[in-house]
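Human: I hope this is not a bother. Would you mind checking the protein record under this note? Thank you for your patience.
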Amino acid sequence: TYLNIAFLFFAPLKFLGVGTFPSAPLVLRTISALAGLFGLVLVYNFGKKHAGNFAAAFTVAFLLLDSNFMEFSTRIHPDSLIWAFCFLSLIVAALHANRGDRASLVALGIVIGLVQGTKAGGIFLLPMALTATALGVGQSDQGHARAFWGKCIFVGFRVFILGTSALGALFVSSPSIFLHRYYFRTMRAAAGILTDSESPVSSTTCLT
């Protein structure tokens, strides 16, 4: 997703005859910086709404003083973009939990797909997404008397919408994932490393 977004801006420059260097690094660094700023705006607005002005300002100040956040917001790396998408997913998940409508559910799926395409982080958002979906079902199902199996079908349909939206966003933002086996090979290799009992990170990964 990170490189595909950059391509949308780099391709017209290339067509106009602009050289790859320094235009390509500038485009990529600009995306990182804008994503970092976007993430700060999202965090501030979310904190202000749910915890007050002080909590919002404190959180933003903490991120600005964090060396990792500043570093990845100024270098060619997808981390600042995935942070922004993750912050956005939190906002959309809270919105869907309160409203329970299909539009916010589709939006949540889209953001998860973007996170997955950016740096394979969508899977870590599934617990939050499923919790928001369950809470959203409770909101949208108010006033409707359903049998047990009817509720199961309704919940399953909501999960299907969430998953379909995520896959659609993943395909649109990162079509190369579906056109080449490299992505799936690397995912299998990473999963093998993390699940290997002799791996030094396996126990830590299971705990986190």
